Amino acid sequence: MTGSEHQREKAKVVAWYGRGPHFRKVLAYLRQKYPSFPSCAVVPSSYPQALIAPQVDEIRTIRGALDALYHAWHLRRQGVRCVAVMFDSFRLRTIAALCGAEEQGCVTLDGRWVVFSESLARYALRRARKRILGTLQSLRILVHVYAFPVRNDAIEK
Question: Degrees (nearest 5) of the Cα angle 59, 64, 66?
C-alpha cells in the first residue's frame, strides 16, 4: 500500500464552524453525503460540544487564528476528503484550501451544497477587482454630487 493510498484510506470529512445557525445542518449533510468516512468538526472553544457530539467522530477546538492554521495544517497531513464551511467567505475559503481537501464547498442556510470550483488565487483576484470597481464607482458618484451640484433654477423648470 503506497503512502497516498494509506492517506486516502484514513481520510475524513471536516465541517468548519463559521458563526452561523446551520452548523448542525452542515454536519448532517456531510454524514449523508459521506457515510463511510469519519467526520470531524472544528469549532471554537466556546461552542457547546454536547450539541454535536452524537453527530461527529472527532471534535477539535480552536482558540484563535494561529490555532486554526495549526489545525488546518494537521488535517492536511492526515488527509481530508471534503471540507465544508458554513459561508462563502474569503477566510473560510482560505481555511478550506489550507486543509488540502479533494472537495471544498459550503452548505447554505437552505441546505444546498455549493462547490468552490475556482482556485483561491482566482477568487482573491476577482474579489479585489470587484472592490476596486466598487470604489471607483463610489468616487465617480461623489465627483458628480460635489462637482456638479443641482441648481435651484434647474429644478424649477
Answer: 100
Determine the Cα–Cα distance for residues 111 and 33; give it in Å rounded to an integer: 12
The domain limits of the chain are: 3-115, 120-156
Q: In 1-155, at which residue ranges do the beta strands (DSSP E only) sit?
A: 12-16, 39-44, 58-62, 80-85, 103-107, 113-115
Which of 10, 61, 15, 1 lies closest to 36, judged by CA? 10
CATH entry 3.40.50.300 includes domain 3-115: no
Q: What is the mean pLDDT of residues 77-94?
A: 89
Which H or E run contains 134? helix 120-147
Query: For residue 154, what pLDDT is reported?
Result: 58
pTM of the full structure: 0.70
Residues 13/30, Cβ–Cβ less than 8 Å: yes
What mean pLDDT is predicted for residues 76-83?
Answer: 91
